[in-house]
């Protein structure tokens, strides 16, 4: 009867670690390192990252075998969270999460949160220094699996020195993230956010939340993430808005005035800025604001296809108010705006089509 993959893994580790002077364990041996190269690679390619790491620890020869297969096969994508002190490996629909917590209560909470996810396998441990230990564990995993972190969730509620050690550790592996969820707890940690953005850029989704900052605080957002979400965007003034290059931009609690939003729309119409824009949301407007904001060439529309587009790729809005369409001067694009009272109050929604 053929062995299942978990039995194979146990057999491999036992056979690799077996000392002839000791009594062999009661397992069916699976001679992995004696297989032809193609067969050995096939067995290794079926293993999870946890299984590969376990095999690599059995001997120097098995470690070389795992490193060799990891260089040639499709790599795992990796996400890291300092909030949960966890590393997760992703491939297809499966997730393998390794988490270390400071006490059993936190470990149990993490397990409860994810326990109903059938496509997730978890290893959860407890340590006095969870962040330090999970970083050390991942350093070894990265060596044998030939992978790098491409997604991070970071909460800067630790001392600045600890935040910056973590930033340097991530940047040494990868200076470009596909996803970043970043939040700071106070004015001091905002400097750590600046420190990070000077070293790491985001190409995909970037969620940014600065909970507290001074009135004169300013911070550039480099690069052009596909999706930029800023939950407290009072630090983004009109001039910085013009410098944002993301195709999709969401600015909550904005300080932009009606006149500045009007100027922004006119700059888009005249092809001066935001040629790659696909959608934008600006919070803190109201129905009366639209008279000043739409003081520009436009036409009203009730096209159901356009209304449906507001409930699509970038946001989910059921259009209940008037829609206004404007043309770009090169004739290649149109944009339609409407306002809705959704999530954090009245907001202007714009889609380019």
From TrEMBL:
It comes from the Eukaryota. InterPro entries: F-box_dom (IPR001810), F-box_Sdz-33 (IPR012885). PROSITE patterns: FBOX. Pfam families: F-box, FBA_2. Residues 29-76 form the F-box domain. This is F-box domain-containing protein. It comes from Caenorhabditis tropicalis.
């Amino acid at each position: 009867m053929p062995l299942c993959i978990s039995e194979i893994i146990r057999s491999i580790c036992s056979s690799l670690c077996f000392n002839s002077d000791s009594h062999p364990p009661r397992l069916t041996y699976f001679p992995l390192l004696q297989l032809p190269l193609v067969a050995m690679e096939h067995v290794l390619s079926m293993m999870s990252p946890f299984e590969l790491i376990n095999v690599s620890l059995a001997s120097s020869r098995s470690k070389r075998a795992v490193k060799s297969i990891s260089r040639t096969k499709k790599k795992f994508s990796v996400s890291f969270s300092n909030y949960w002190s966890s590393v997760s490996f992703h491939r297809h629909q499966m997730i393998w999460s390794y988490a270390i917590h400071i006490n059993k209560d936190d470990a149990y909470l993490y397990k409860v949160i994810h326990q109903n996810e059938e496509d997730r396998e978890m290893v959860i441990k407890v340590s006095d220094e969870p962040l330090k230990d999970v970083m050390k564990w991942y350093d070894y995993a990265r060596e044998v699996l030939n992978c790098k972190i491409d997604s991070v969730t970071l909460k800067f509620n630790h001392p600045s020195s600890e935040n910056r050690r973590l930033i340097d550790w991530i940047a040494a592996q990868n200076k470009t993230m596909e996803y970043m969820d970043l939040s700071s707890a106070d004015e001091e940690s905002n400097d750590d956010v600046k420190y990070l953005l000077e070293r790491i850029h985001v190409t995909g989704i970037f969620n940014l939340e600065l909970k507290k900052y001074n009135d004169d605080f300013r911070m550039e957002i480099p690069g052009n993430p596909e999706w930029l979400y800023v939950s407290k965007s009072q630090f983004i003034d009109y001039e910085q808005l013009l410098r944002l290059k993301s195709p999709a931009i969401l600015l909550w609690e904005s300080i932009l005035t009606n006149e500045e939003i009007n100027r922004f729309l006119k700059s888009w119409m005249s092809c001066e800025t935001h040629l790659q824009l696909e959608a934008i949301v600006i919070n803190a407007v109201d129905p009366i604001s639209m008279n000043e904001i739409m003081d520009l060439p436009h036409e009203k529309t009730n096209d159901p296809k356009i209304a449906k587009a507001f409930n699509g790729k970038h946001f989910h809005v059921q259009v209940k108010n008037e829609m206004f369409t404007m043309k770009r001067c090169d004739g290649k694009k149109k944009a339609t705006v409407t306002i809705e009272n959704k999530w954090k109050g009245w907001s202007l929604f714009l889609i380019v089509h």
